[in-house]
Design goal:
The protein is an alpha/beta fold. The chain has 9 helices and 11 strands. It has a 5-stranded mixed sheet, with helices on one face. A 4-stranded parallel sheet has the order 9-8-10-11. It has a two-stranded antiparallel ribbon with strand order 1-2.
Length: about 375
Amino acid sequence: MATIAALASAALASDKSPLMRLHPVRTMGRVNSSYNVAQDYWHIETNHTFPEVTDHRKGQLKRGDGGAGDRSCWVVAQDHVEPYSDFFAPRGTPAQPYPGGAPRFAWRWHGRISLQLFNSVPFVLRNRFGCNHCTLVLRYKVFGGRLYTDTNRRHRDLSGQEKEAEQIEEMMLAALHLFKVPNADVLVHLGDGAPEGLPLLQANIDRRFENAGFAIPKRMWEDALGPEQTSVLHECLETRYPRSDKRAARVAWRGTNTDVHIDPTVESNALDVVRGRLHLMGRWYPEIFDTHIVGWVQSKFTTQCVAQVLPTGSRVQLEDFNNFALIVDVDGNGWSDRMRLLAHYNTPVLKQASAVPEQGDEGRRS
């Protein structure tokens, strides 16, 4: 099933685009991972310079009348018409590693599965294989550079996950357009659960297991920007949140108490949730941590104790986290939805890695 790797590479594009300024990349070496990340982590440095923005351009990008109105920088960038270029042209050869040997992507599945068992994976995974939040499995086949699905695919009720399935199919079709993909049978899991022991393309993985499948950036794909749109995003961020401005000297985080291992949250386990402890740090050290839970979900409290000890805090618009000195990103699914934004911000981000990366943090919607 190693050939599945090519299908998950749709977001990678050619290095030959005349529109995208490529910044020097230097590979510093590997960083050992305790979470079964394929080939461990790589330490890569790049010298990225944010664009200089003219006064006229600043007037167009600032918030308010005469500028961009109430649109976020991400929406402003999406509204920019991206011209076609050879950046999106098919690639005849695989993407080359970065200088120093760091791969642009690495997909390894260390499990073993027979074709008979692979073919017997059911359409519905609910409460099977010890997996919470598991749902539906779709079957695909790549043959001769074309994508096929089973004859029942278009007639099945996907329980409200039709858009997710369409996004994943579009990613696979883009991979076939950009790359030479060998023939392969593919299983796609639509749920947020993380079953181990199956070579599934899915939004989430359980990194405690070596044979945990493959994570795909489904929502990052939906909101992907082109090269010129990315430049507009950076110009907008520099206009609204100049790095020369004095930031609030605090660490910022907002979210909810979702936890795949603690459901429901009750008085006796509220502080076992990572996010609950982070909220408590904000109560103890408000001069350092501006960290708050904005709502208790998946909870069954019978008293007001948690509300008194950990009262919920105010929301912060995701873009406005750039007013702080440091942003904390807790968990997030296999390819955290927030990272599509945080990776572009001109504010440092401290990213937590966890054995079971969750989906459900409200920070991406706030």
